[in-house]
């Protein structure tokens, strides 16, 4: 590539980067992000009968472990305090939520899903490792 063409490409790339950066800052200033709050968890099919020992990972937080029987629904507040069941989602970002079986040697991941920064009230089904759970959550837009 000759120097003139290289300079033109670099100039164009710099302009695109500047335009993108300006848009990102404007979007951040307009929206304060979101808050994810887990509301309940329901055991639809257990991994290990007669009970599963389940906990959630909500972003970088871990809830307490609770025993579930098949068909049992637990309020999220039974799994943990507000810090453990809520998580901030940056504008345009997402938070990862995982349902795990607390096993003696290595914990088993039943399912994982992403929650975007978008106002919603959702019942999300997660299945894996022979189990099936439903996680209910709410996402609210922050000012």
* Total number of domains: 2
Helix share of residues? 25-40%
Look at the structure and name the CATH superfamily of the largest domain.
C2 domain
Beta fraction of the residues?
Answer: over 45%
User: What would you call the structural class?
Assistant: alpha+beta
CATH architecture label name of the largest domain: Sandwich
N-to-C series of helices and strands:
HEEEEEHHEEEEE
Please summarize the sheet with the most strands: 5 strands, antiparallel
* Oligomeric state of the chains in view: single chain
**pLDDT < 50 runs, ≥5 residues:** 1-30
Shape: elongated
Query: What is the number of helical segments per DSSP (H or I, 4+ residues)?
Result: 3
Which CATH class of the largest domain? Mainly Beta
Q: Averaging pLDDT over every residue, what do you get? A: 84
| Rg, alpha carbons | 21 Å
Number of strands: 10
Terminal CA distance reads: 49 Å
CATH fold call of the largest domain: Immunoglobulin-like
